[in-house]
Design brief:
The structure is a single chain. This protein has 344 residues and is α/β, with parallel strands linked by helices. The chain has 2 domains: 2-113 and 304-338, Nucleotidyltransferase, domain 5 (2-Layer Sandwich); 120-205 and 238-301, ATPase, nucleotide binding domain (Nucleotidyltransferase, domain 5), CATH 3.30.420.40. Helices cover 44% and strands 19% of the residues. It is built from 11 helices and 12 strands. It has helices at 41-63, 82-99, 108-120, 156-166, 174-182, 202-220, 222-226, 237-263, 278-290, 300-303, 307-316, and strands spanning 2-7, 12-19, 24-31, 72-78, 103-107, 126-130, 135-141, 144-150, 194-195, 198-199, 267-270, 294-296. It has a 5-stranded mixed sheet, sandwiched between helices. Strands 8-7-6-11-12 form a 5-stranded mixed sheet, with helices on both faces. A two-stranded antiparallel ribbon has the order 9-10. Strand 11 (267-270), helix 9 and strand 12 form a beta-alpha-beta unit. The structure holds adenosine-5'-triphosphate and fe (ii) ion. Residues 9-11, 80, 108, 131-134, 155, 157-158, 160-161, 172-175, 178, 272-274, 276-277, 304-305 line the site of adenosine-5'-triphosphate. Fe (ii) ion binds at residues 108, 112, 131, 272, 305.
């Protein structure tokens, strides 16, 4: 059985094709990027409108398949930006109707976890899922994927992107901050915000902006400083990037470790765009090593938003697929633990 999956929750329009044995045929994405600002939902929607047909065509071409070979269609139902989700849902429904095959809407966060399991052969892992909009520590317990810890405000990726934007770097900021951090040597103390099992980033963002502003002041305030107008400390932007990573990644690792201790699970899998970060991977590896647990990182192309994970979750949830095309809808606010896991 071949499933074609469509992803469109935020900045990425993606199409993946996989079969029921987990054989990968294609994973094509087209991501909306900006030079300076963040994501504008209506622009991302426009991007998806323009990209959708070609992404699906390219996926079929890469798979060396015809549309008629597809047996099942899946799409990201949520959580995500409603205007973006609607583009994916419409494209998916159009394909399913044309082919007269069933369609299934799936949860984006669970898709990260299931593709991680498929690609790493982890059996029953804790998933650390740090992405743009989401930051969660998830594991299976009692019929659901439970959220053991999560952000109380923004996702860690959006937090990093906001700081990157503030200092004049474009979107996505994560890879740019990672590069800057490599040249940072001095740890600058930042707020460390773990509340129970949850994390929070907005206070750290304010603190970083204030520290960055004092750095800007330094640049223009040579003589004023000597007159005592500014007493700000001098922070190098590389040191700020380095300290940002060390602080927030330590928070994520702490909560993940606590979830592993609580559930007794012995595997950690990463998913989500921020998981591409090599320093985060290294910190997770060290933590797992110290508690004799296994650590897995799927390849980057499935860490970031992609259609392949949606096609695989389509296969996993194929029993829930339907031909009632009019009953299909998006779920922009669906939580990981809203979904009843019937397939394990
Ligand atoms: P989701 O819909 O799952 O919440 P998302 O739509 O934001 O996530 P992802 O592709 O999972 O999409 O993640 C994008 C985020 O990953 C961006 O915030 C980006 O800055 C961040 N990111 C990508 N590469 C890196 C990196 N090397 N280091 C840190 N952050 C990174
Ligand atoms: Fe994602």
């Amino acid at each position: 059985m071949l499933c074609l999956g469509i992803e469109s929750t935020a900045h990425t329009f993606g199409c993946g094709i996989i079969d029921s044995k987990g054989k990968i045929y294609a994973n094509v994405t087209d991501a909306y990027k900006t030079e300076t600002g963040g994501i504008h939902p209506s622009e991302a929607k426009l991007h998806h409108e323009n990209a959708k047909d070609k992404v699906v065509e390219d996926a079929l071409k890469a798979a060396n398949l015809k549309l008629e070979d597809i047996d099942l269609i899946s799409f990201s139902q949520g959580p995500g930006l409603a205007p973006c989700l609607l583009v994916g849902m419409k494209k998916a429904t159009e394909l399913a109707k044309k082919l007269k095959v069933p369609i299934v809407g799936v949860n984006h966060c669970i898709a990260h976890l299931e593709i991680g399991k498929l690609m790493t052969k982890a059996k029953d892992p804790v998933l650390l899922y740090p992405s743009g909009a989401n930051t969660q520590v998830i594991a299976y317990e009692g019929g659901k994927y439970r959220v053991f810890g999560e952000t109380l405000d923004q996702g860690v990726g959006n937090f990093i992107d906001s700081f990157a934007r503030y200092i004049g770097l474009g979107f996505p900021g994560g890879p740019k901050i990672e590069k800057l951090a490599l040249n940072g040597k001095n740890y600058i103390e930042l707020p460390y915000v773990v509340k129970g099992m949850d994390v929070s980033f907005s206070g750290i963002l304010t603190n970083l902006k204030q520290k960055y502003d004092s750095l800007e002041n330094q640049r223009f305030s040579g003589h004023q400083k000597s007159k005592g107008f500014f007493s700000a400390k001098k922070y190098k932007v590389e040191d700020l990037a380095f300290s940002l990573q060390e602080t927030v990644f330590a928070m994520l690792v702490e909560v993940s470790e606590r979830a592993m201790a609580h559930t007794g699970k012995k595997e950690l899998v990463l998913g989500g765009g921020v998981a591409c970060n090599k320093r985060l991977q290294q910190m997770c590896r060290i933590m797992c090593g110290e508690r004799n647990a296994k650590f897995f990182v799927p390849p980057n192309e499935v860490l970031v938003d992609n259609g392949l994970m949606i096609s695989w979750l389509g296969i996993v949830q194929r029993k829930q697929a339907t031909k009632d095309f009019n009953g299909i809808d998006i779920k922009p606010y669906e939580r990981t633990d809203d979904v009843i896991v019937t397939w394990r």
